[in-house]
Amino acid sequence: MVVFAMGCPSGLRGLSLALLASTASAAVIPRDPIPDGFVAPPYYPSPYGGWADDWAESYSKATKLVSQMTVAEKVNITAGTGLFMVGRCVGNTGSVPRLGFPQLCLQDGPLGIRSTDNNTAFPAGITTGATFNKELIYQRGVALGEEFRGKGANFYLGPSVGALGRKPRGGRNWEGFGSDPVLQAIAGAETIKGVQEQGVIATLKHLIGNEQELYRMYNPFQRAYSANIDDRTMHEVYLWPFAEGVRAGAGSIMSAYNDVNGSAASQNSYLLNGLLKDELGFQGFVMTDWLSQISGVAAALAGLDMSMPGDTIGNAIPLTGHSHWMYELTRSVLNGSVPVDRLNDMATRIVATWYQFGQDKDFPPPNFSTNTADREGPLYPGALFSPSGVVNEYVNVQGDHKVVAKQVAQEAITLLKNDGGFLPLSTSTPLFVFGTDAQADPRGINSCVDKSCNRGLLGMGWGSGSANYPYLDDPISSLRRKAANVTYYATNSFPSVQTPGGGDTAIVFISSDGGENTYTVEGNHGDRDASGLVAWYNGDELVQKAAAKYSNVVVVVHTVGPIVVEPWIDLPSVKAVLVAHLPGQEAGDSLTELLFGEASPSGHLPYTIPVSEKDFPDSVGLVATPLSQTQDTYSEGIYIDYRYLNKHGIKPRFAFGHGLSYASFTFSNATIKRVPNAPLSEEPPARPPKLASPIAGLDVSLPDATEAYYPESGLDRIWRYLYPWLDKGDADKAYTIGVEGREKYPYPEGYSPEQRTEVPVAGGTNGGNPALWDAAYEVTVTVTNTNTGKAPAGKAVAQAYVQFPAGIAWDTPPVQLRDFAKTGKALGGGESAQLRLSLTRRDVSVWDVVRQNWIVPNPRGRYAIWVGDASDNLRVACYTDTLTCEEGLEPPV
Ligand code: BGC
Predict the structure, then answer these.
(1) 558 and 428 in one domain?
(2) Ligand 1 atom index nearest CA of 160
(3) What's the rounded Cα separation, in Å, for the pair 782 and 659?
(4) Least buried of 263, 302, 421, 872, by fewest C-beta within 10 Å?
(5) Ligand 1 site residues, Cβ closer than 6 angstroms
(6) Distance in angstroms (rounded) separating the CA atoms of residues 606 and 654
(7) How many C-beta atoms surround the C-beta of residue 572 within 10 A?
(8) Residues sharing a CB contact under 8 Å with residue 403, sequence separation 6 or more, in sequence order
(9) Are both 779 and 654 inside the same structural domain?
């Protein structure tokens, strides 16, 4: 299979591919038709930002600043200055020094600051989701924000809620929080809040449909795949977490590499102008994923606001200094192709976002370099001749973040099985430990660039979503610290061992890795295309052989996503199984404290572990159509993960949300109330009118050509650096065309430069019609730890799932997660706590494709809100018609 591995190469990887890319244009590549019913209708023009009350002040400051900018200055802040050019981060914008607007630093990634030092390597998104602990997720966001600020990064390129986890083999699911829109939405929003409260701008990514890594990008021979998503599925599943993120105030959004319904996500007017900016009322700005821009004017018209890292893919390397924007955008504005108001809007959105998070006051400049670990290095690494200077100041930003990192790692650990209460172990039990995954990579904890190998403990997946470990607390060191008698076999092939004595216990570590398509690891091109959902390095055999020898086996799994456990899960000696997900730097004590009962497991699966991968529909397998455009059609619609299995009556091995504790929890005294105390209407109250935008007040006259001329003095031009200026002749020529209006740009179908007066009925600022977030029902439940013995205290999680009334006109999944809550403290035997679960109007609505609105199908009907500790262990139901609850029920699925 031919795989083009681009993305954001760290260092010089990917050079050859980009060289290839410079020889052809994707525009001439044939493609299969997009299947019927999947459309990306034209949506123009791009709606102005600046119509939300809570952004008003920032927009007012921004319009003042932008009104003083020349055309070249406005253009300069809408793009990066080029891969490896000036700037120390993975993306670096141009600046407007004359007006005090700095170069902005954009840096990966979702679990920590990438490619630097003295940072924390937090647990990955998937681990964070598995905690089902909102407060803890928020605290991780706070810590991440502090670290990005401390390093001088204006942007946190995260969180990732797309990939959402539709495909179990998908390479980047682990960067997000789990295969459910609500889990992604809540965890994404809490992360955004935590990060942005530190004045760092979060970048919610990737909009949308980047559910597989293979064929994700355009290359000279092939278009990126098209994610074909119908309108209802888009709203109820994939857009849902983006809506929540916009509501939480996300400052920026990154578009995906792929097409959506046949139109590239970076220039898809339906997606950017329609869904995101008009319906969800997004006030921040949209940036491309790295090198995903495929056109200049079309992208601007379709709603793109920032090009990253600024280069075209075709000429990115060897950095010949080509851009779809920068000088080309200046030219397009001067010659009248891109309307001045669009450029005003782009620039103002960016500047307003900078103000919105207070970055005009005391935001530190970057003090690290993503390109080198050396103190000094080239200031323009991509230039032929570059002056050198200090690029790394090694600022330690870790603070006490290891505490929250460890807590996330620990609260995520999911106990799948614990036969006869085998765990916790005694520290005096002789332990025989197997598997290289128990120890740190012997060649060095950061020996593989961007974690592009799975050697030693798997603490994170690979690619731009990885970070350097400052240190790694590996499980074997922690076991040795705590247990009296540990024998370690650092091998994945079962060694010859002495015949164990009675009571001996084996702990077997196995793993499954995945990552970004930039790298291929053990034949896996990002997605787990080679390994499938099978433990790597013959992990199944290691467990089986250990189980044949020892009478007690504990399996610990570090994994990016579901693995099939059938080869060994029912073996009588496999007593306990823990999924520790991707723990980051705190992999050791977080685990062993649970093994030895210093705390109780409280993680829950953020995806389903099926009996067989074949239990999922074919449409969520990896797809590839070499030499044509791959069509990735979401024919399963809203039925992914547990929704699909439940609909088809297929029992998983371990259901979404499953997770055992050493404590025994019961749920009782459930109550439900309608908030406020009046029946819901079928349609939400009308959306508020769209307010006027201050962008409309900015000057739209054609800028003078002189505004685009290269400065006559003070600029030492660097070859291949991306500048917004034009040579005088070019600027004059473009201006003349603009004045005379003689060459008309071939505008896309449906294009109009006039702002729309008609607005989406479901729309509003910050996520859509605010009424969608009105509280609808509140459920409370008492959770009690009924243990009477000496078992350790444990935190309990309550999950609330909605079941729509029978007989409605929409097909809905048997149950859908809508909220969750975790006890603030661990409950000892006999202790209780009350947990509160809230459902909004949107939670009891479906997306009506005809009315283009969220509809409560039967407001007076019987919605059941099921509560329990797993999607297949729901034994309490509260009903919206009678406002009563029942306990001790048979679970609905
Ligand atoms: C990834 C993004 C990342 C960017 C910058 C791309 O390859 O898809 O998630 O933020 O590179 O490194």
Answers:
(1) yes
(2) 9
(3) 19
(4) 421
(5) 7-8, 90, 108, 157, 205, 289-290, 464
(6) 11
(7) 9
(8) none
(9) no
Whether 32 sits among the annotated catalytic residues: the reply is no
Q: Is residue 882 in a domain? A: yes
- The atom of ligand 1 lying closest to the CA of 206 is 9
Q: Using one digit for the tens of pLDDT, what is the confidence trace for 796-855?
A: 999 999 999 999 999 999 999 999 999 999 999 999 999 999 999 999 999 999 999 999
Distance CA 488, CA 829 (A): 35
Whether the CA torsion 717, 722, 725, 729 is positive or negative: it is: positive
The pLDDT score that the predictor gives to residue 29 is: 65
Residue 158 main-chain phi, psi, to 5 deg: -175, 175
Q: Report how far residue 703's alpha carbon sits from residue 165's, in angstroms, rounded to the nearest whole number.
A: 46
Model pLDDT for residues 332-354, shown as the tens digit of each residue: 999 999 999 999 999 999 999 99
The CATH number covering residue 800 comes to 2.60.40.10
Verify that 483 and 598 share a domain, yes or no. Answer: yes
Query: Best of 213, 464, 516 to mutate for ligand 1, by most ligand atoms within 8 A of CB?
Result: 464
Please tell me the predicted confidence (pLDDT) of residue 26. Answer: 44
Here the CATH number for the domain that contains residue 425 is: 3.40.50.1700
Q: Compute the distance from residue 8 Cα to the ligand 1 centre, in Å.
A: 5
Longest dimension (CA), the chain: 92
Measured CA to CA, the distance from residue 212 to residue 619 in angstroms comes to 12
Edge-to-edge, what's the strand order for the sheet holding 884-886? 816-822, 797-803, 864-868, 874-879, 884-886
Its domain, for residue 779, covers: 666-675+773-886
Q: Note whether 605 and 670 are same-domain residues.
A: no
Q: Are residues 792 and 876 located together in one domain of the fold? A: yes
Share of the chain above pLDDT 90, in %: 89
Q: How confident is the prediction for the chain on average, in pLDDT?
A: 94
Question: Exposed, middle or buried, 737 (CB in 10 Å: 0-12/13-18/19+)?
Answer: middle
Mean pLDDT of 179-201: 99
CA separation (Å) from 384 to 11, 387, 710, 798? Answer: 15, 10, 21, 59
pLDDT for residue 168 = 98
What is the Cα–Cα distance from 747 to 45, expressed in whole angstroms? 11
Tell the residue number behind the tokens 């994610």, with chain if given: 227
What the block records as the tokens of 139 is: 């605290």
In the block, residue with structure tokens 């009308």: 686
Note the pLDDT tens digit of each residue in 674-697. Answer: 988 778 999 999 999 999 999 999
Distance 217 CA to ligand 1 centre (A): 12
pLDDT tens column, 292-310 = 999 999 999 999 999 999 9
Contact 49, 345 (CB under 8 A): yes
Closest to 38 (Cα-Cα) out of 494, 637, 792, 564: 637
825 burial type by CB count under 10 A (0-12 exposed, 13-18 middle, 19+ buried): exposed
